[in-house]
């Protein structure tokens, strides 16, 4: 008798979108209300207030109806105008891509670039602002996901504040998984589909009073457009018409994701993201592989990028991890493609045992692709010690 073929269980350990929390999946099945129903309008206001509290935002955050690239493009168009001189900080693929949306709206744009395995430091930023005193807006990708590196947001925000420019931050893949204080941040864009464990489809934009004033004074800020942040400013006020139909089902999902985040306690959520990433990094190093980040301190708590050894093809590696071990991870993007693989620690997958699963699959797939001796026992011991 031949043994029946056993299919592996599926573990989606990607850098987003990620599996949703069960509470979120249940909420997606709530009845879809009519957007002019007062019951829905009350729900929308309560949801907006919940989000404001969770983010610690001085003003009411705006929810846009499209996954976070919509929010990023909308904010670029709404905030940046013909009087603005933009300094775009680039430590990875997302930061570089954001320049393409910022540049057309601005009088000028310059970029501060670092290697994609490093981070922007306060000294480099201070120097760049010294060279470009005309800067009115600084843009930063907090966690450049294709590199798995986290920029030091509070320190960079303090430097921007000293200068007086507005700070615009893409924190799509960090907010909710690490502590983010809005102190010194003028616009923060995030989404529910990374660390909040909700499906992709919404953008979240929190803006300071200064940023709202800047957007309102911007002659080129879009109106009557899907890219208009200003159109949605007062959407939370009951009885106020929405600019267009909100994504009712995904708002229900966001509501459940926020409830879970608040009930678990943000500090606890951040701690398990950090712990999972630390276990993963310890395991990778003990196994005999290298982190992508030039220094471990640059590595993000919400994703781990692992440098591929010479001669290992990333597509072959990820395919084996999936077919033989049921573990789905992410590739690099653009400049980081075929140089690394990424394991996400976001929302429901930010539990340290998932690091053990990822390490096991990584080791098993690597063993089929390279003669390099890699030590699974040491990797698991190192991860478990964390
Ligand atoms: C995920 C992500 C986005 C949104 O883009 P996707 O289409 O979901 O890839 C934007 N910025 C960052 C830093 C992200 O990680």
From TrEMBL:
Keywords: Aminotransferase, Pyridoxal phosphate, Transferase. The keyword Transmembrane helix does not apply. InterPro entries: Aminotrans_V_dom, PyrdxlP-dep_Trfase, PyrdxlP-dep_Trfase_major, PyrdxlP-dep_Trfase_small, SP_NH2Trfase/AEP_transaminase. Residues 105-334 form the Aminotransferase class V domain. It holds the Pfam family Aminotran_5. The keyword Transferase applies. GO terms for biological process: glycine biosynthetic process, by transamination of glyoxylate. It comes from the Bacteria. Substrate binds at residue 342. GO terms for molecular function: alanine-glyoxylate transaminase activity; L-serine-pyruvate transaminase activity. Its cofactor is pyridoxal 5'-phosphate. The modification N6-(pyridoxal phosphate)lysine is found at residue 194. PANTHER family: ALANINE--GLYOXYLATE AMINOTRANSFERASE 1, AMINOTRANSFERASE CLASS V. NCBIfam families: PyrdoxPyrvTramin. Belongs to the class-V pyridoxal-phosphate-dependent aminotransferase family. This is Aminotransferase.
